[in-house]
Amino acid sequence: MTATVEAPGQDRTRGRARIARVAQRQGALVILAVVVVAATFTFDSFGTAGNLENIALQASFLAVVALGMTFVIMSGGIDLSVGSVFALGGVLAAWGAGHGTWAAVLLPVVVCGAIGLVQGLVIARGGLPPFIVTLAGLLFARGLLLLISDEGATTYKVPPSSAFRELAQGSFLGIGYPVWIVAVAFSVGGLVLHRSSYGSTVLAIGGQEDAADLMGLPVLRTKVVTYTVSGVLAGFGGLLMASYTSSGVTVLGVGTELEVIAAVVLGGTLLTGGAGTVLGSLVGVLLLQVIRNVINQIGSLNSNWQAVISGTILLVVVTLQRWLATVQRE
Amino acid sequence: MNRTTFPRTWRLVACSAAVLGAALAGCTNPGTSEQAAGTGGNSGDDGQVVKESTGEGCTLEEYGAEKIDLSQAVVGFSQSEPDTAAFRAAETKSIREAAKEAGVEELLVTNANNELPKQIADIQNMLNQGADFLIVAPVNSDGLDPALDAAKQRGVPVLTIDRKVTNTHCEDYLAFLGSDFYEQGKRAADAMNEATGGQAKVAILLGSSGNNVTEDRNSGFKDQVQAQYPGLEIVAEQTANFARDEGQAVAEQLLQSNPDITAIYAHNDEMALGAVTAVQAAGKQPGEDIKIVSIDGTRNAVQAIVDGQINAVIESNPRFGPLAFETARKFYAGEPIPENVIITDDEYNRDNAEENLGEAF
């Protein structure tokens, strides 16, 4: 790479590296576009405004959680607690809605943020592996949920008069509020990643933590913030779901963490950290939702195909990522 | 990274792409949705018998739905749990066969894999595909509101089966078809009394907590024991989450800590089959030294009665198909449909298990 006279071969290598970078970032978008176009032409009811709005709305709950997960994975970590925290957030919100709209919004955000904060502190200060710490968080949050819901037997309902219902059931210009919230959240997320020192520190930690530390970057603080934000967003996703379903459903969120991780990786974020885009994660979530929708359109197809197809696409994307990474390095 | 790894990686990619391609190709092949899942003989003629109907009637007019001809209707069925469970498989199959029997234009089937958000999406999806009538096995009693609202907006009636929703009858949903789980518990107590001769120390394997099936099957059993059978003493109860492996593990622990247990009541067949193994492991004879009674009526459990390992099974009939379509037909004929349609469940015991084995699911 330090050669002063460029050989013609290097030019080609550089061109290939650029294509590789684009493919890694936009690969999921290409797959999404192909699937959407194909489905629109194949199924009459797929391309309808109602159906597309449904897909966007239903993807928005996971998308909120995936935004937090994107930063966690980019920093080289993982957050297994988000599924349980998502469910806990929903139950807290529904319970809080009985005591006013502010309680419904603040309670889950504060409690779930606190869970994220503790996880972040243990990971950053204690130097423990995120996998184990957030696994403990998964169990803790699920246990807490069962405690406050009488072992899951009590489902708190959002009162019919509560303004909290509007949050996810209302719409603006015919598009549900959750979709707008996701649009704003991801725009902010993109700015934070690319335009703030926090964002570059996250990427630096994910790239090489020791180097980031030696450069004097605030590694500990950044990690704590990242896990706290992940907790807040998971709780927020849960509260949106509670508003949408008008109840604090206790059976939610089992395995959701894996779905979110899959979406983030599909979106081009490297599981090893250090690279990725915020928008990619949104595409990843949409892709999973579209696949689910298409399988329903087929009707005769067993819904387990969803897992099979999602798994296959994930495998292809991860394989491609690996290959593209080697191309870029050359 | 050396260049020799490229071809191998490429091959992997190509291979995965081929798999994906095949899967997607399979997708673009619509129109087989009415095909029955299987042709196992006897399930068609084993529909449910209504035991009692409660609650106010709901007519087509009151519900605000439009009259349609079932033979030209698209019917959607939203299953709650994976068909790996025998109950769910039998339920889905029954709906498919009854739809064929009723001659509906198309039957859409979705499976929520136990996820509430997916069930909401599934239902909205089927509405988008033009479903005129919906049969829903709810994942959860609460939280289906967005899906039910969407159906209401389109004037599509929703019939819930096997689990009741907490929404408003005749406004959000048409009716509930299902078993009386409390009654099942009471009958299990009767069967336990029969099997033990009225004297036993009973351990209970509970289903998943926070579930009305578990609660009702438990309180029905206990209330009946308290009222009728003073000789049956309940010495232990532990949850085993409706799962066979957990049923086995919990039964093992209970038998160790309470060696004087002489009977086990399991809230479902899977846990009972786990208990059979646990009893054998403890060096005792299931069905003899330790009497076992459970609820469901799966083929494996009824076979275990024939083999002498389980004493009795109270049936929980999953074959909702014929009754569901009969209810739809009556509804569109203008008849009022009661809020709760409770079905009759059979019982398998040592006297009838062998001859009725074919009816188990």
Short characterization:
Chain A has 330 residues and is mainly α. Chain A has a single domain, classed as ABC transporter involved in vitamin B12 uptake, BtuC (Orthogonal Bundle), CATH 1.10.3470. Chain A has helices at residues 8-42, 49-74, 82-97, 101-126, 130-148, 166-169, 177-195, 197-207, 209-214, 219-245, 256-266, 278-298, 304-329, and strands spanning 171-172, 175-176.
Walk me through the structure:
With 330 residues, chain A is mostly helical. Chain A has a single domain (9-329), classed as ABC transporter involved in vitamin B12 uptake, BtuC, CATH 1.10.3470. Chain A has helices spanning 8-42, 49-74, 82-97, 101-126, 130-148, 166-169, 177-195, 197-207, 209-214, 219-245, 256-266, 278-298, 304-329, and strands at residues 171-172, 175-176. In chain A, a hairpin with a 2-residue loop joins strand 1 (171-172) and strand 2 (175-176). Chain A is globular, with a radius of gyration of 21 Å. Residues 1-6 of chain A have low confidence and may be disordered. Chain B is built from 12 helices and 13 strands. Chain B has a 7-stranded mixed β-sheet, sandwiched between helices. Chain B has a 6-stranded mixed β-sheet with strand order 8-7-9-10-11-13, sandwiched between helices. In chain B, helix 3 (86-102) packs across helix 11, helix 4 packs parallel to helix 5 (145-153) and helix 8 packs across helix 9. The N and C termini of chain B lie far apart (56 Å). At the A-B interface, helix 2, helix 10, helix 12 and helix 13 of A face helix 1, strand 3 and helix 4 of B.
CATH superfamily of the largest domain in chain B: Response regulator
Q: What assembly state would you assign to the polypeptide chains in this entry?
A: heterodimer
CATH topology of chain A: ABC transporter involved in vitamin B12 uptake, BtuC
What sort of overall outline of chain A do the alpha carbons produce when their principal axes are compared? globular
E-strand count of chain B: 13
**How many structural domains of chain B?**
2
Average pLDDT of chain A works out at 87
Fold-level CATH name of the largest domain in chain B: Rossmann fold
The number of distinct helices of chain A, counting runs of at least 4 residues, comes to 13
Gyration radius of chain A (Cα, Å) is: 21 Å
Strand content of chain B: 15-25%
GO molecular function (chain B): carbohydrate binding
Family (chain B): Belongs to the bacterial solute-binding protein 2 family.
Protein name (chain B): Monosaccharide ABC transporter substrate-binding protein (CUT2 family)
Subcellular location (chain B): Cell envelope
